[in-house]
């Protein structure tokens, strides 16, 4: 087999690979478009839920205003009944009679009913306030979901643009490979003589042996050199050092701050539950051994989706949780071995 034939075969393989890769890209584009449609269908649903929730909030706001007004009126009625009771008692003590006794008992009953009214309306105000707070939390969670959905849609659109660009480039490369293959077929008649091919083959084998020996020498030299951090670990270490420096400065600037939580734990899809330790200034720290792969971590009912690389499988991670409020926070983490020996 001569060099021209080998080149033709290689070009055919390149064309086959280009076509296969283009087909894979087309399927990925199709899947991405489907995901975009599904995300777009969820956005109007979120808008409807937001409108319904806003209407319900307005309704409970009106109910709360009415209940508070009723409670204020009940308090005024109770104060009036109490004043009336005191007056009838004074009259009865000054000039006791059946009439003053009846008036005093009637005033006592009126005051008792007024107090019961205050108690009942106070409970009603508490119930409505509790429901109103629940609706406010639901509104906040829905807003977070809407923001997350919008971010997801932007990511999907960016991915679609990138895939379509790659597909055009791949189709162009496939066309160029096809043209090169056709040119090789046309030039196949112009083959080199067998002696020249044999000489070139021997020379190539000689060069290959030299390259192999050189690579073996380099591998042996590299094996004896001390290993350092990978580029990914160096970047992760730099990020972790910046995080530690920032939280130390924050803690030092806010001494004596009490924790938001009495107990706070780190949960996860692939790890056991471990407690956090309070560091100060609303920072909490925990350690856990992680497993690789896509997964979520959960802190105070907040979920954080993360991907642990295969290289870090079984490593101990340090988790730093910064509580922004009782229901919201930021979760950072780094491999313990990067900073702590």
Any overview of this molecule?
With 341 residues, this protein is an alpha+beta fold. Helices cover 70% and strands 14% of the residues. It has helices at 3-94, 98-186, 194-224, 231-253, 336-339; strands at 265-268, 274-275, 277-280, 283-289, 293-299, 302-308, 316-325, 328-335. The strands form 2 sheets. A 4-stranded antiparallel β-sheet has the order 2-1-5-6, with no helix packed on it. A hairpin with a 2-residue loop joins strand 3 (277-280) and strand 4. Helix 1 (3-94) runs antiparallel to helix 2 (98-186).
Q: Tags for this entry?
A:
341 residues; alpha+beta; Helix Hairpins; Immunoglobulin-like; 2 domains; 4-stranded antiparallel beta sheet; 5 helices; 70% helix; 14% strand
β-strand number: 8
Number of helices: 5
Determine the mean pLDDT. 84
SSE pattern, N- to C-terminal: HHHHEEEEEEEEH
What about the largest sheet? 4 strands, antiparallel
CATH architecture identity of the largest domain: Orthogonal Bundle
The name of the CATH topology of the largest domain is: Helix Hairpins
Name the overall outline.
elongated
Uncertain runs: 207-226
CATH class of the largest domain: Mainly Alpha
Query: In what range is the share of β-strand residues?
Result: 5-15%
Q: How would you name the CATH homologous superfamily of the largest domain?
A: Methyl-accepting chemotaxis protein
**Helical content (DSSP H or I, runs of 4+):** over 70%
Structural class: alpha+beta
- How far the N terminus sits from the C terminus, by CA atoms, comes to 59 Å
* Radius of gyration using CA atoms only: 38 Å
Number of domains: 2
């Amino acid at each position: 087999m001569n060099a021209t034939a080998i080149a033709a075969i290689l070009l055919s393989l390149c064309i086959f690979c280009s076509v296969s890769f283009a087909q894979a890209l087309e399927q990925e584009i199709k899947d991405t478009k489907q995901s975009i449609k599904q995300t777009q269908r969820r956005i109007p649903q979120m808008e409807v839920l937001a409108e319904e929730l806003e209407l319900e909030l307005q309704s409970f706001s009106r109910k709360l205003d009415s209940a508070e007004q009723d409670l204020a009126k009940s308090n005024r009625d109770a104060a009036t009944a109490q004043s009336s009771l005191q007056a009838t008692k004074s009259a009865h003590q000054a000039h006791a009679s059946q009439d003053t006794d009846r008036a005093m008992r009637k005033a006592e009953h009126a005051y008792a009913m007024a107090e019961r009214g205050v108690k009942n309306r106070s409970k009603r105000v508490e119930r409505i306030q509790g429901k109103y707070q629940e609706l406010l939390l639901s509104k906040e969670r829905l807003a977070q979901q809407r923001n997350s959905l919008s971010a997801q849609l932007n990511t999907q659109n960016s991915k679609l643009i990138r895939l379509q660009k790659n597909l055009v480039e791949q189709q162009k490369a496939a066309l160029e490979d096809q043209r090169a293959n056709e040119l090789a077929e046309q030039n196949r008649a112009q083959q080199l003589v067998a002696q020249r091919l044999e000489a070139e083959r021997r020379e190539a084998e000689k060069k290959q042996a030299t390259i192999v020996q050189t690579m073996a020498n380099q591998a042996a030299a590299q094996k004896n050199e001390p290993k350092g951090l990978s580029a990914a670990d160096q970047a992760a270490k730099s990020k972790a050092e910046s995080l530690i420096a920032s939280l130390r400065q924050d803690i030092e600037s806010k001494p004596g701050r009490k924790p938001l939580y009495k107990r706070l734990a780190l949960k996860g899809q692939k790890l056991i539950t471990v407690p956090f330790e309070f560091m100060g200034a609303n920072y909490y720290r925990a350690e856990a051994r992680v497993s690789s792969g896509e997964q979520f971590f959960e802190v105070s009912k907040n979920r954080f989706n993360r991907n642990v690389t295969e290289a870090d499988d079984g490593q101990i991670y340090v988790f730093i949780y910064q509580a922004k409020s009782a229901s919201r926070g930021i979760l950072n983490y780094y491999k313990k071995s990067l900073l702590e020996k």
